[in-house]
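sry for the spam today, last one i promise. struct tokens for design, 50 residues
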């Protein structure tokens, strides 16, 4: 059985009053299996903000 992401909300600066939503990362992992490679790909989309 493969579990995939149906709807993702990815947030950076989660402790800040106005967190930044990482919309590109959300789209990268949507409807894909949950695994380390897909998580890393989602993180790579927002490296310019780090």
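last one done:
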């Amino acid at each position: 059985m493969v579990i995939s992401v149906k709807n993702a909300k990815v947030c950076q600066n989660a402790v800040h009053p106005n967190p930044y939503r990482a919309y590109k990362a959300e789209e990268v992992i949507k409807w894909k299996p949950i695994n380390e490679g897909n998580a890393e790909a989602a993180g790579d989309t927002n490296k310019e903000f780090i």
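The radius of gyration is 11 Å. ok im logging off now
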